[in-house]
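Minutes, structural biology subgroup

Action item carried over from last meeting: produce the structure token record for Kelch like family member 26 (Meleagris gallopavo). EB confirmed the sequence was re-checked against the source entry. Recorded below for completeness.
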Amino acid sequence: MMVCVAVELGICFQTALCYSISPSMLCRYTTYCFNLKPACLSCSVFSMADKNSTLKCTFSAPGHSTTLLQGLASLRAQAQLLDVILTINNEVFQVHKVVLAACSDYFRAMFTGGMREASQDVIELKGVSAKGLKHIIDFAYSAEVTLDLDCIQDVLGAAVFLQMVPVVELCEEFLKSAMSVETCLNIGQMATTFSLASLKESVDAFTFRHFLQISEEEDFLHLPLERLVFFLQSNKLQSCSEIDLFRAAVRWLQYDPTRRASASQVLCHIRFPLMKSSELVDNVQTFDIMVEDVLCRQYLLEAFNYQILPFRQHEMQSPRTTIRSDVLSLITFGGTPYTDNDRTVSCKVFCLPDAGGRQFKELTEMEVGSSHSCVAVLDNFVYIVGGQHLQYRSGEGAVDICYRYDPHLNQWLRIQAMQESRIQFQLNVLHGMVYATGGRNRSGSLASVEKYCPKDNEWTYVCSLKRRTWGHAGATVGDKLYISGGYGISVEDKKALHCYDPAVDQWEFKTPMNEPRVLHAMVSANNRIYALGGRMDHVDRCFDVLAVEYYVPETDQWTTVSPMRAVTAAENPIFATRTESWPVLWWVPAKCESDWKQCHGSALPAQRSSGRNLWSSSRLFDSFSVIRAGHEQNNSAPRFGGSSLSGPEPAGIAAPPPALRGQTRQASGQLSVRHCVSVASVRHELEKDKFRLCLAPEHDDPSSTRIFFRRIAGHAAEKSFAADCPWNGGSHL
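Output recorded by EB:
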């Protein structure tokens, strides 16, 4: 008999030796070891630790887990140490309890929770298939699972039942990669059956993108009513026309005659008012259920009324008149070339689908060109009011013409003209009415105020401002309209704040702004009114105002916050931002100072316009937008807040689309751009753009319109505009 023993030898070091010895020799070795002198023991055992008592290392063998799994798989293959048999429909699986308990919460509870199966050698499983269990056991011994569309439902069902989370996650990954028009609905059914939220979100997103193709599949006809309604009522079906959705719904209803009783539940989510009149007549009313079912007949009547009574559409707003879109779009109207000797104005309309977009889409043109118009959004209709149809320095070109743009049908409607022609006035919406305040025309500056009633299609005078003013800004908060700054009689008029209460039809003065401003912007957010930008005149020079302040109506107090970064007076650039506290979409000049350099990778050119600068604003959901347009070039004019910096064009910035390029004027090797455009934010249903923006060529005007994005850091009063927030590049207009 041979025995292995480890003996420590040496005085100042330790060595482990392994000897093959007999029992008699073992006694002598043991006696020798335990009869060592104490001094020797102390030296041999503790000397190394005394020299470095803090040394402690942990080592790992990376391949140990693989070796362990291979060893367990080998034991299973050789039928060694197997201690339990699982049976399903007469199929037998011999396994190790400890392996199953280690990777399955179900088996851990079974074998360690005091259940009777813990003492059984043979356990019959129910609720899983033999095919699924085989894949689960193979995974337990190899950490690998082979999946295909034939076995995935069995494996996923077994993994969920046996609480094998890693296998469930692998099945989800496989199903996401296998998603197609043909498999989408089946995968969605599995996601619903096994309560896989992440997989269900992926299925829903895929279905929204490919709904029309999926509706042609046979599986679509077996879709449960609840799932069909879920898709039809969603605003995410943005690539589908309402008539196509109607045809898909009819196909589903006609598959089973018993479904006719549910016709109104399905068709109430089709937005009939947004269809063309010809589609309603030729395709919708010819379907018998639309006439036989009382509710469906009402949906059809609603659509006809909506289209034949355009001035009463505000009264007929319903879920069926809402555009299928969850994103607000930015739309620009008109404008004029950036030259002093070209008095023409543009009738072009461009749309930016969302704040992060990089492509503009050209929409239906206005009947006539316009610049310096005011815009307002009411019930997702855009009102384009006043302005001028030929470019003039003063108000002599002001007009009273008004239009309404319908993004639902992409149509224009000419509405009743204002009582007076106006330019550089304010247009705001309050209590379902559109208010036009102040401004100027060929008669001079105005104090009159008039409101438009969409139902009556009529403009009527209300209480006038206390002073004549133009170039002012306006915003609404709560039940009141606020007007600030603008040109009046004195400098104090440029700081004045007027408040209009429609309940008593009166104006009153409130606490004036801290900074005098004209041609600036006001926007409301979180029950505050922000005053941004603008200009201040001083003798024969003008200055950009970079200061930002907000007004709280409850306290009648203005608070100054961080100023805008040294902004130059460029032509119509855009700035957009979105934050958790108050998202913002803001148009700002494209020219910026050196502190923007980190965002764009290079400093922007220094050329700027600093003459008469117009700022206008438009509320954008929980955001607001501001557009600034200069229309008198004065490169030597000073500005508040820093100096300009010249440099190359930022890389990756796109050029204007061809449609806009054709409207610009070629001069001295550079393209002039539009300015004094009007901007509004509305929901708009867009088809895929037909053009892509290209990299700006070297001869393009470096001051052409761009979009920039900035993320606002905080919501506290002193940090509403954080000084260290980054800027990001965006689209051209």
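Discussion: Residues 394-561 form a domain with the Neuraminidase fold (CATH 2.120.10.80).
Next step: EB to file the record with the rest of the batch.
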